[in-house]
Amino acid sequence: MPLSPTELAKLLELLAQTQNHELNCEQCLALVAEFAESQLAGQSVAANLQAVQQHLAVCGECREEYEALREALISMRENGPDE
Ligand SMILES: [Zn+2]
To answer: What is the gyration radius of the CA atoms in the chain, in angstroms?
Structure first.
């Protein structure tokens, strides 16, 4: 069954939105520290970091980077509680 013009428009809109929010690995890694810190601080995901979250969900390499950073941040906190 072919898509109606309305459905097609919706689909294109969705695709456009996805592309707007999609980061490449370089962009993701530029923001991943900020993302990790806000996650550890228990903050809700800021608008500019939602794309990072999305990228991490689909990119294993960046997710590994994120996990490593997260571990590092956690151990830094444990070693130096200066709040
Ligand atoms: Zn990536």
So the answer is: 17
